[in-house]
Amino acid sequence: MKQVLLFVVACAAACLPGMACTGITLESGDSCTVVARTIEWGGSDLNSVYVVVPRGYEQQSLVPGGMADGMKFAARYGYVGLSVEQKEFVAEGLNEAGLSAGLFYFPGYGKYEEYDEQEKATSIADLQLVSLVLGQCATIDEVKSTVAGVHVVAIDPRASTVHWRFTDVTGRQVVLEIVDGTAHFYENPLGVLTNSPGFEWHLTNLNNYVNLYPGAAAARQWGEAQLSQFGAGSGALGLPGDITPPSRFIRAAFFQTTAPVQPTAAKTVQSAFQILNNFDIPVGVEFADGKVPADIPSATQWTSATDVRNRIIYYRTMWNSRIRSIDLRSIDFSKVKYRAVPLDEAKQQPVEQILIK
Fold first, then answer.
1. Domain 2-196+266-342's class?
2. Distance between CA atoms of 315 and 82, rounded to whole angstroms?
3. Are 19 and 107 a contacting pair, CB within 8 Å?
4. In angstroms, how far is CA 18 from the centroid of its own chain?
5. Domain locations in the chain?
6. How far apart are CA 278 and CA 249, in angstroms?
7. pLDDT (average), residues 14-35
8. pLDDT by residue (tens digit) across 36-78?
9. Cα gap 106→103, rounded to integer Å
10. 90-119: string of b/e by CB count within 10 Å (b at 16+)?
11. What is 31-47 written as a DSSP string?
12. What pLDDT was estimated at residue 18?
């Protein structure tokens, strides 16, 4: 009964305004791929945890109604995931083969196939597809094969649909969107993803910003008037600053493609967090004046960065901006026990006092 109740809470959160995600991808000078993203929800604390899943760990998907009566699946690969609301709902993760997977909210545009109880043995809840893929797949081709063999379903009609980003150790990245019950994979060499509308629409919309460039605009003469910039960065005039998914996609693409290439994966991870600082959403922005529903410090509840080649996942949270990491190479996935651990031990931003003598 508890599982059903938590599920309803998660779905209610997912269908309200305020869900947002921004994803970027950076390459280091030594050819490492780093995928990074934010996850937002301004309605309440998502009570996020990290899960450590050993090889052979068995799970069963939820189905409509909230019961775990769907597809049974076991992990071929061990993985670490960051989950929201319930430990089963992995929103971002990395497996020991170097495959990264994450879900991004996709309201109003996606549509899964209708659930058929006769096919429950091959039906997987959308919020559990990341777990299935991380446990079963090492490459993008394996992801496509796995998705082709299952029925992805919603477990509550009130919940938003999602779309997914998958990246393998070669740096190849695809976006999966399910529209009118049909799965569509899109190659994503740009490496940026946000939310609705569809991925192809966002790529087309980039053309509206062909005028943007890094650096300063040159001085110009307009008749008798001499025009010159007020400050640095005037080449980016017109860059949208609001928090809608189309604007975040443009901003993420611009910041990502103008970022200096860092020599190592570790420095690239730092660069990714710096870029994504620009996408932290103050909790009050997403709601009408006086309607903020929860006492949380930010709508951006956590930010992660994943070094797929070196098998390290990093994160920081709204409660603690210190970057923490989990190195999958240090985990023996044949022996480790399943665990789910809160991302934060204390829900309070730590402050270090500097003592002057």
1. alpha beta
2. 9
3. yes
4. 15
5. 2-196+266-342
6. 12
7. 84
8. 999 999 888 999 999 999 999 999 999 998 889 999 999 999 9
9. 9
10. bbbbbbbbbbbbbbbbbbebbebbebeeee
11. S-EEEEEEEE-SSS---
12. 56
Are β-strands 151-153 and 123-125 bridged in parallel, bridged antiparallel, or unpaired?
A: parallel
pLDDT of residue 7: 43
Instruction: Please tell me the distance from the alpha carbon of residue 289 to that of residue 114, in angstroms, as a whole number.
Output: 38
What are 243's two structure tokens? 């928090």
For 219-337, where are the E strands, in sequence order? 220-222, 225-227, 300-307, 312-317, 324-327
Tell me the pLDDT tens digit for each residue of 157-207.
Answer: 778 899 999 999 999 999 999 999 999 999 999 999 999 999 999 999 999
Q: Which residues contact 221 (CB under 8 A, 6 or more apart)?
A: 227
Which amino acid is present at 152? V
d(CA 23, CA 188): 12
Instruction: Find residue 103's DSSP bridge partners.
Output: 164
pTM for the whole structure:
0.93
The number of C-alpha atoms within 13 Å of 167 and in the hemisphere containing its C-beta is: 31
Residue with tokens 């040159």: 218
Instruction: Report the alpha-carbon distance of residue 280 to residue 301 in Å, rounded.
Output: 9
Both tokens assigned to 38:
């934010």
CA–CA gap between residue 177 and residue 183 (Å, rounded): 6
